[in-house]
């Protein structure tokens, strides 16, 4: 799928605005925040995630046993 440069800029703005107003209340919010950050990086790098950044997203919390949100917010 190909997107025009203006469409990519609009998507970046929407993601940045959502990230700016987000407050982390539970693990699902944290998961959404990390997913949005990854999407923003992909848009900035034409659909690719640089190898040195890819490791940052390896620890995206999965559903299942709950972890303490305070420990994960540093991401």
Annotation keywords:
75 residues, mainly alpha, 0% strand
Structure, described:
By secondary structure, the chain is mostly helical. It has one domain. Helices cover 57% and strands 0% of the residues. The protein has four helices and no strands. The model has no long low-confidence stretch (mean pLDDT 78).
Structural class: mainly alpha
The radius of gyration computed from the alpha-carbon positions, rounded to a whole number of angstroms, is 14 Å
Largest sheet at a glance? Answer: none
The helix count comes to 4
Contiguous runs where pLDDT drops below 50 for at least 5 residues = none
Q: What proportion strand?
A: under 5%
Number of domains: 1
* Percent of residues in helices: 55-70%
Average pLDDT, to the nearest integer?
A: 78
Present the secondary structure layout.
Layout: H1 5-21, H2 27-44, H3 51-54, H4 69-72
Short structural description:
The protein has helices at 5-21, 27-44, 51-54, 69-72. It has 75 residues and is mainly α.
């Amino acid at each position: 799928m190909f997107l025009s440069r203006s469409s990519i800029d609009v998507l970046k703005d929407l993601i940045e605005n959502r990230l700016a107003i987000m407050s982390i209340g539970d693990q699902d919010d944290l998961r959404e925040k990390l997913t949005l950050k990854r999407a923003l990086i992909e848009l900035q790098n034409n659909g690719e995630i640089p190898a040195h950044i890819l490791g940052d997203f390896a620890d995206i919390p999965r559903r299942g046993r709950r972890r303490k949100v305070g420990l994960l917010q540093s991401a």
